[in-house]
């Protein structure tokens, strides 16, 4: 199993990345600000107007280092890829399964059930840790949401097709995000949450969620490419030009554990403040440069925490679960026929 390697996030304005032998050098206004060996890198994410030399792009493509360009709010812009890796027979099997509802349903069922279970666990952890401080209506709302998510997980067992499972997944999202205001223990109305808003996010909580979902999507796509699967061809999410549907599938079960809990921690522990956001004339909300850097540091630290993987039975860093391909490898093994089913990651 691979160890957790580094992902470098370049957030400085007008940064320039160049190659020096087997190192990537980061310069700002001609001054070297950082240097990292290529063999220690798993991914490179550039924000703002960071420039990258052709030599760096070629080295990343050759060594399988994921190189992505994103807007400051985390929205995907472009990605540099080298030659396709992996077994073509695996990808052909993936395409056949995606086109065969009978074979796709068990995998999608596991993904949706895992998402519901992990969303429920986020709520139950809040009730366990802060239940005594919650007002009666808030506590009752969280208990009701947890019960509804349990029912949704069981509904997946009776779902006959992918369309029905997509409906269950949508219900889970509605229940979970309706309960999220009760998980935010910050009394400033600036951190009020009234449901998911995307493209653009219209409040501070959504700005954090969208940014971290973009980071998780980068990791999931890299993981799938690393084991030879095609990130564009999904099972739960329908194919759409420009959308990495299988990466979105892989995100579903892990984002309550990795992204949502981090957002709640940053807000509830006052690690991020109202001043860390900019509200534009259009109503869109984005983080300041300093806030984005702080969130990225917290993101990297969060991925180092350990959880016991329910299928493998061993303690792994959270980052390894996705970033170093454990879930992608398990999906690939199932598609090859080495495993009878896809072992969803369920947080305990």
H/I helix tally = 10
CATH class of the largest domain: Mainly Alpha
Mean pLDDT: 84
Q: In the CATH hierarchy, what is the architecture of the largest domain at level 2?
A: Up-down Bundle
| Widest sheet: strand ordering | 1-5-7-8
Q: What class would the helix/strand composition place it in?
A: alpha/beta
The CATH topology of the largest domain turns out to be Four Helix Bundle (Hemerythrin (Met), subunit A)
Helix content: 40-55%
- Shape assignment: globular
Report the radius of gyration as a whole number of Å.
20 Å
Q: Which terms summarize this structure?
A:
Four Helix Bundle (Hemerythrin (Met), subunit A), alpha/beta, 348 residues, Ribosomal Protein L15, Chain: K, domain 2, globular
Provide structural commentary.
- The chain has 348 residues and is α/β, with parallel strands linked by helices.
- It has two domains: 6-80, Ribosomal Protein L15, Chain: K, domain 2, CATH 3.100.10; 88-336, CRISPR-associated endonuclease Cas1, C-terminal domain (Four Helix Bundle (Hemerythrin (Met), subunit A)), CATH 1.20.120.
- 50% of the residues lie in helices and 16% in strands.
- The chain contains ten helices and twelve strands.
- The protein has helices at 54-63, 88-99, 101-130, 136-158, 162-179, 204-227, 245-268, 289-304, 318-322, 326-336, and strands spanning 6-10, 15-20, 23-28, 31-37, 41-46, 51-52, 66-70, 76-80, 277-279, 285-287, 306-308, 315-317.
- The strands form four sheets. It has a four-stranded mixed β-sheet.
- A hairpin with a 5-residue loop joins strand 7 and strand 8 (76-80).
- The protein starts with 5 loop residues before the first strand and ends in a 12-residue tail after the last helix.
